[in-house]
Amino acid sequence: AQSVTQPDIHITVSEGASLELRCNYSYGATPYLFWYVQSPGQGLQLLLKYFSGDTLVQGIKGFEAEFKRSQSSFNLRKPSVHWSDAAEYFCAVGASNNDMRFGAGTRLTVKP
Amino acid sequence: DAGVIQSPRHEVTEMGQEVTLRCKPISGHDYLFWYRQTMMRGLELLIYFNNNVPIDDSGMPEDRFSAKMPNASFSTLKIQPSEPRDSAVYFCASSPDADTQYFGPGTRLTVL
Description:
A: six-stranded mixed sheet; globular; B: 11 strands
Protein backbone atom coordinates (compact mmCIF):
# COMPACT_ATOMS: atom_id res chain seq x y z
CA ALA A 1 0.00 0.00 0.00
CA GLN A 2 1.16 3.50 -0.67
CA SER A 3 2.23 5.67 2.24
CA VAL A 4 4.01 8.93 2.88
CA THR A 5 6.25 9.84 5.78
CA GLN A 6 7.27 13.33 6.71
CA PRO A 7 9.75 12.78 9.54
CA ASP A 8 9.78 16.34 10.80
CA ILE A 9 6.63 17.57 12.52
CA HIS A 10 7.97 21.07 13.08
CA ILE A 11 10.97 22.94 11.69
CA THR A 12 12.21 26.40 12.59
CA VAL A 13 14.58 28.31 10.32
CA SER A 14 15.82 31.86 10.27
CA GLU A 15 14.71 34.17 7.51
CA GLY A 16 17.19 34.02 4.67
CA ALA A 17 18.42 30.57 5.59
CA SER A 18 18.04 27.55 3.35
CA LEU A 19 15.30 25.01 3.86
CA GLU A 20 14.88 21.33 3.23
CA LEU A 21 11.71 19.43 4.13
CA ARG A 22 11.91 15.68 3.98
CA CYS A 23 9.45 13.31 2.41
CA ASN A 24 9.76 9.55 2.08
CA TYR A 25 7.25 7.35 0.35
CA SER A 26 6.38 3.74 -0.08
CA TYR A 27 4.94 2.74 -3.40
CA GLY A 28 5.06 -0.23 -5.74
CA ALA A 29 5.82 1.69 -8.90
CA THR A 30 6.87 5.18 -9.89
CA PRO A 31 4.33 7.35 -8.17
CA TYR A 32 2.96 10.75 -8.78
CA LEU A 33 4.50 13.03 -6.14
CA PHE A 34 3.26 16.36 -4.91
CA TRP A 35 4.09 19.09 -2.44
CA TYR A 36 1.32 21.31 -1.13
CA VAL A 37 1.43 24.30 1.21
CA GLN A 38 -1.32 25.29 3.63
CA SER A 39 -1.37 28.72 5.20
CA PRO A 40 -3.38 29.17 8.40
CA GLY A 41 -7.10 29.07 7.74
CA GLN A 42 -6.59 28.33 4.07
CA GLY A 43 -6.90 25.38 1.76
CA LEU A 44 -3.94 23.59 0.23
CA GLN A 45 -2.05 25.10 -2.67
CA LEU A 46 0.09 23.05 -5.02
CA LEU A 47 3.77 23.99 -4.96
CA LEU A 48 5.06 21.43 -7.44
CA LYS A 49 4.55 17.95 -8.77
CA TYR A 50 6.55 15.13 -10.31
CA PHE A 51 5.15 12.61 -12.74
CA SER A 52 8.15 11.63 -14.86
CA GLY A 53 11.22 13.07 -16.59
CA ASP A 54 13.71 15.40 -14.98
CA THR A 55 14.04 14.43 -11.34
CA LEU A 56 14.62 18.02 -10.22
CA VAL A 57 11.31 19.83 -10.29
CA GLN A 58 10.82 23.57 -10.04
CA GLY A 59 7.72 24.96 -8.42
CA ILE A 60 6.13 28.21 -7.44
CA LYS A 61 7.46 30.64 -4.83
CA GLY A 62 11.06 29.59 -5.44
CA PHE A 63 10.64 26.00 -4.25
CA GLU A 64 12.15 22.95 -5.85
CA ALA A 65 12.10 19.23 -5.09
CA GLU A 66 14.22 16.31 -6.16
CA PHE A 67 12.93 12.81 -6.77
CA LYS A 68 15.41 10.16 -5.68
CA ARG A 69 14.15 6.72 -6.57
CA SER A 70 16.96 4.90 -4.76
CA GLN A 71 16.06 6.64 -1.52
CA SER A 72 12.29 6.75 -2.08
CA SER A 73 12.45 10.42 -1.29
CA PHE A 74 11.04 13.66 -2.65
CA ASN A 75 12.53 16.41 -0.50
CA LEU A 76 11.44 20.02 -0.85
CA ARG A 77 14.06 22.77 -0.86
CA LYS A 78 14.32 26.51 -0.95
CA PRO A 79 17.63 28.38 -0.94
CA SER A 80 16.45 31.40 1.05
CA VAL A 81 13.34 31.37 3.21
CA HIS A 82 11.05 34.38 3.55
CA TRP A 83 8.82 35.11 6.54
CA SER A 84 5.79 34.55 4.30
CA ASP A 85 6.85 30.91 3.83
CA ALA A 86 5.71 30.09 7.35
CA ALA A 87 2.98 27.51 6.83
CA GLU A 88 2.31 23.79 6.89
CA TYR A 89 3.74 21.70 4.09
CA PHE A 90 2.31 18.42 2.88
CA CYS A 91 3.89 15.80 0.70
CA ALA A 92 1.51 13.51 -1.20
CA VAL A 93 1.92 10.37 -3.29
CA GLY A 94 -0.42 8.52 -5.57
CA ALA A 95 -0.96 6.46 -8.66
CA SER A 96 -2.78 9.42 -10.05
CA ASN A 97 -4.22 12.70 -9.00
CA ASN A 98 -7.32 10.80 -7.91
CA ASP A 99 -5.56 8.46 -5.55
CA MET A 100 -3.38 10.67 -3.40
CA ARG A 101 -2.26 9.93 0.13
CA PHE A 102 -0.97 12.82 2.17
CA GLY A 103 1.77 12.90 4.74
CA ALA A 104 1.12 14.23 8.22
CA GLY A 105 2.63 17.58 7.33
CA THR A 106 5.59 19.66 8.49
CA ARG A 107 4.95 22.97 10.16
CA LEU A 108 7.50 25.61 9.22
CA THR A 109 8.25 28.53 11.54
CA VAL A 110 10.44 31.36 10.23
CA LYS A 111 12.43 33.39 12.76
CA PRO A 112 13.12 37.04 11.97
CA ASP B 1 -12.12 32.44 -11.66
CA ALA B 2 -13.29 32.55 -8.04
CA GLY B 3 -11.74 29.22 -7.19
CA VAL B 4 -13.43 26.47 -5.23
CA ILE B 5 -16.12 27.89 -2.98
CA GLN B 6 -17.19 26.22 0.24
CA SER B 7 -19.94 27.15 2.64
CA PRO B 8 -20.28 27.66 5.45
CA ARG B 9 -16.74 28.48 6.53
CA HIS B 10 -17.54 27.64 10.11
CA GLU B 11 -20.29 25.46 11.52
CA VAL B 12 -21.06 24.78 15.16
CA THR B 13 -23.77 22.28 15.91
CA GLU B 14 -24.93 19.95 18.62
CA MET B 15 -24.56 16.23 18.63
CA GLY B 16 -27.37 14.50 16.79
CA GLN B 17 -28.08 17.36 14.42
CA GLU B 18 -27.82 17.10 10.66
CA VAL B 19 -24.98 19.01 9.05
CA THR B 20 -24.71 19.89 5.37
CA LEU B 21 -21.51 21.21 3.84
CA ARG B 22 -21.55 22.73 0.40
CA CYS B 23 -19.05 23.04 -2.40
CA LYS B 24 -18.97 24.79 -5.74
CA PRO B 25 -16.08 23.54 -7.89
CA ILE B 26 -14.20 25.52 -10.47
CA SER B 27 -16.17 25.68 -13.69
CA GLY B 28 -15.06 23.07 -16.21
CA HIS B 29 -13.43 20.78 -13.69
CA ASP B 30 -14.61 17.19 -14.06
CA TYR B 31 -13.36 15.88 -10.73
CA LEU B 32 -14.51 16.82 -7.27
CA PHE B 33 -13.00 15.57 -4.00
CA TRP B 34 -14.05 15.76 -0.36
CA TYR B 35 -11.35 15.56 2.32
CA ARG B 36 -11.37 15.66 6.09
CA GLN B 37 -8.47 17.06 8.11
CA THR B 38 -7.92 16.33 11.80
CA MET B 39 -4.93 16.54 14.06
CA MET B 40 -5.03 12.83 14.74
CA ARG B 41 -5.54 11.48 11.25
CA GLY B 42 -4.23 14.25 9.02
CA LEU B 43 -5.80 14.78 5.61
CA GLU B 44 -8.04 11.94 4.46
CA LEU B 45 -9.85 11.51 1.17
CA LEU B 46 -13.51 10.77 1.85
CA ILE B 47 -14.99 10.50 -1.64
CA TYR B 48 -14.47 11.74 -5.15
CA PHE B 49 -16.68 12.28 -8.17
CA ASN B 50 -15.98 12.26 -11.88
CA ASN B 51 -18.55 13.96 -14.09
CA ASN B 52 -20.96 14.07 -11.13
CA VAL B 53 -20.71 10.31 -10.54
CA PRO B 54 -19.24 9.00 -7.27
CA ILE B 55 -16.19 6.93 -8.17
CA ASP B 56 -14.60 6.01 -4.85
CA ASP B 57 -16.33 6.42 -1.51
CA SER B 58 -14.15 4.00 0.41
CA GLY B 59 -12.93 6.81 2.63
CA MET B 60 -16.39 7.69 3.92
CA PRO B 61 -16.16 6.76 7.60
CA GLU B 62 -19.64 5.34 8.10
CA ASP B 63 -23.23 5.45 6.96
CA ARG B 64 -23.84 8.70 8.76
CA PHE B 65 -21.87 10.38 5.98
CA SER B 66 -23.27 10.88 2.50
CA ALA B 67 -22.24 12.98 -0.47
CA LYS B 68 -24.05 14.04 -3.58
CA MET B 69 -23.27 15.93 -6.74
CA PRO B 70 -26.55 16.75 -8.46
CA ASN B 71 -24.85 18.81 -11.16
CA ALA B 72 -21.42 19.92 -12.30
CA SER B 73 -21.45 23.07 -10.21
CA PHE B 74 -22.57 21.83 -6.81
CA SER B 75 -21.84 19.13 -4.27
CA THR B 76 -22.89 18.46 -0.70
CA LEU B 77 -21.47 16.42 2.12
CA LYS B 78 -24.03 15.53 4.75
CA ILE B 79 -23.56 14.11 8.22
CA GLN B 80 -26.67 12.76 9.92
CA PRO B 81 -26.62 12.44 12.86
CA SER B 82 -23.46 14.34 13.74
CA GLU B 83 -21.16 13.29 16.58
CA PRO B 84 -18.37 15.15 18.41
CA ARG B 85 -15.74 12.98 16.71
CA ASP B 86 -16.85 14.43 13.38
CA SER B 87 -15.31 17.76 14.38
CA ALA B 88 -12.71 18.56 11.75
CA VAL B 89 -11.96 20.79 8.79
CA TYR B 90 -13.62 19.53 5.64
CA PHE B 91 -12.09 20.47 2.31
CA CYS B 92 -13.50 20.29 -1.14
CA ALA B 93 -11.15 20.22 -4.12
CA SER B 94 -11.71 20.11 -7.86
CA SER B 95 -9.53 19.09 -10.75
CA PRO B 96 -9.75 19.40 -14.53
CA ASP B 97 -8.00 16.09 -15.13
CA ALA B 98 -5.60 13.64 -13.52
CA ASP B 99 -3.23 16.43 -12.63
CA THR B 100 -3.61 19.24 -10.13
CA GLN B 101 -6.23 19.54 -7.43
CA TYR B 102 -7.45 22.97 -6.41
CA PHE B 103 -8.60 23.19 -2.84
CA GLY B 104 -11.29 25.33 -1.31
CA PRO B 105 -10.74 27.22 1.96
CA GLY B 106 -12.45 24.52 4.00
CA THR B 107 -15.32 24.33 6.46
CA ARG B 108 -14.42 24.08 10.13
CA LEU B 109 -17.03 21.88 11.79
CA THR B 110 -17.45 21.72 15.54
CA VAL B 111 -19.93 19.26 16.99
CA LEU B 112 -20.68 19.87 20.66
